[in-house]
Amino acid sequence: MRNLKEEIDHNLTWEEEEERPSRTQKKKDAQNLQKLGEFLVTMPKSEIERLDISQELKNAINIAKTFTKHGARKRQIQYIGVLMREVDTTALNAILEKIPHHKKL
What we know:
By secondary structure, this protein is mainly α. The chain contains six helices and no strands.
């Protein structure tokens, strides 16, 4: 039989695990950010400059526009997805919904 301290530690660990997103959810979130990044690459440069995102992300998007090889473009979009983790996507989605040609992801 466990002593009281071990039981409390076990219960705290269990509760902490429930609060964290699952591995599958993390992957889905990353894929959604990557899709949003792909959409940003298709936007005109003038609209990208108006968005409230970091300059590093704007530069990565503009660099992705210059790539013609599929592999290089794919890697750059994955990098954009990584940078998107730092962006408040709810605010970004609200801004993008105002753009007429944007479809909700």
